[in-house]
Amino acid sequence: MSEKLYYSAGWIFPAIATFIALAVSGLLDPYLAFVATSWIIFGLLGLSLDVIWGRGGLLSLAQTAFYGLGGYAGSVVAINMATSTGMTLIWALPIGALFGALVAAALGYIIFYARMGELQSTILSYTFTLLLWSLTQTFKLTLGEAVIGGDNGFSNIPGIILGVGPNAETLAPNGVFAVVVIISAIVYFFTRWLMQSHFGRIVDCIRIDVQKTELLGYDIRKFQVINFAYSGVIAGIAGALFALWSNYLNPSIFSVQEALLVPIYVLVGGLGTLAGPFLGALAIGALSFWLGGGAAGGQTTLILGMVLILLVLFLQNGILGAIGHYWKRLLPDPNEASRNAGTVKIDSAVLETILQDAAEQAGPAKTLNSIELFKQFGGVIPVNKVSREFKPGKPYSLIGPNGAGKSSFLKTCVGIYPPEGGTIHLVIPILPKSLSLTGCVREWGLKTKNLKSSVRLPC
Asked: Where is average pLDDT lowest: 68-77, 106-115, 163-172, 390-399?
């Protein structure tokens, strides 16, 4: 029960925070509402990084690239369409999300299908952002009524308009704040649902152990690209909202400072918590706002930097991580009931259902047979002529001390390590509609070096 309550906090407290923000939106000073809107947008940008970094395990420094491109693309369409239709959100948000997704998917395809390491991937994403920053300095283009002026920026972007028609009015700062809160809440709750779904569990497994996830039969590159593209969707929406909020864009949106601010939002709020980036952006924005009002005596940057360093160093996984740690301590021990429950009882009917679902997802049952499989690394021979048969529907275990060769044997069986000798048979039953399993069996083989790999298929 306590575990459910702990994990429900990710839904309950953000919902309460959304309700409070909407309740006070009409009471805020217009200038404070205007500034606070940017904090929410930066939190949404931080969420895009948390999806790919906190949950996917890749530190991407390209989120501001998707953010800026989404803002530019959404603004071009909004400028040309809002004069006749109003309703800037229906143009800017979908176009910004689509543009961010496409660019992120293209970059993600290069990163993940090339199987780059984490450091190389981060460097490539950072380089991509720098290239965009350099390009936009001199990039000038006129598209209808939209004029992109290079380092002069992109102006005349309409604000957030909810009304229909050419005479629809732009929302006041308090109304803009409320709209941005609602949109951000929708994106957040959908993202939390997605990360708790089957897709999200696979993404978590990839972060924890890429190789084991792949050995379970998942195409990890596909899931990584989709997750990266989804982070681009969120960043593109944030960029479109920022453009409509500020009514102006310039190349600084792709700058180094902007790119490095996003990880700070995530780290301060709580990496992998999804709600943490909003809290981090709110904390940094509110502290900057307060210090900038004269409270710091001209030392705003120094004091803010010291506070951020202390927060990152001494809080367990940021502000939200620390709150979650103490919140969990207040709950009853979830292991107490299990310790007093006695022998674990297994419901055979439920187990049978799970096995049937697993069989449907895995496809036809396969028999793996290794005959005198041999693998060596220089003078070390972890797999020395091992013969084993693994039949479907039965559990198997390889028992031995560390370094005995258990993992090496399994990795050799599935092709992660190329073997030096032996034979591997993978028997896959295939049942055409017009044939039954009683037909003959033929063998297809491929010889490489001293290894003969073969797949035996029913005729």
From this structure: 390-399
Nearby residues of 300 by Cβ (< 8 Å), 6 or more positions away = 288, 291, 292
* CA nearest to 177, candidates 286, 37, 387: 37
We report the CATH number of the domain holding residue 269 as 1.10.3470
308 in the same domain as 190: yes
Name the token pair of 41: 């947008």
- The number of distinct structural domains making up the chain is 2
Give the pLDDT confidence of 350-379 residue by residue, as tens digits.
667 766 665 665 566 677 888 889 998 888
pTM of full prediction above 0.85 = no
> 243 with 383, same domain?
no
Query: What pLDDT is attached to residue 7?
Result: 64
Cα angle 246, 250, 252; round to 5:
105
Q: Determine, yes or no, domain membership for 395.
A: yes
* 138, 10: one domain: yes
Closest CA to 129 of 43, 206, 239, 277: 239
Radius of gyration of the chain (CA): 28
Domain membership flag for residue 220: yes
pLDDT, tens digit, for every residue of 163-199?
A: 888 788 899 999 999 999 999 999 999 999 999 999 9
What does the DSSP 8-state code read for residue 171?
P
Give 433's pLDDT tier (boundaries 50, 70, 90).
very low
The three-point CA angle 94-98-99 to 5° equals: 120
Distance of alpha carbon 452 from alpha carbon 430, whole angstroms:
22
Which CATH number goes with the domain that contains 416?
3.40.50.300
Phi, psi of 317 (to 5 degrees): 55, 50
Q: Which domain holds residue 439?
A: 363-458
Phi and psi (nearest 5°) for 360?
-65, -40
The alpha helices in 114-219, defined as continuous H runs, are 118-138, 173-195, 198-208, 210-215
pLDDT at 310: 77
- Tens of pLDDT, residue by residue over 317-335, are 788 877 777 766 666 655 5
Distance, CA of 324 to CA of 262 (rounded, Å): 22
The H or E element spanning position 48 is helix 30-49
74 belongs to a structural domain: yes
Q: Within a domain: residue 348?
A: no
Task: Look at the block and give the residue holding tokens 């000073």.
Answer: 29
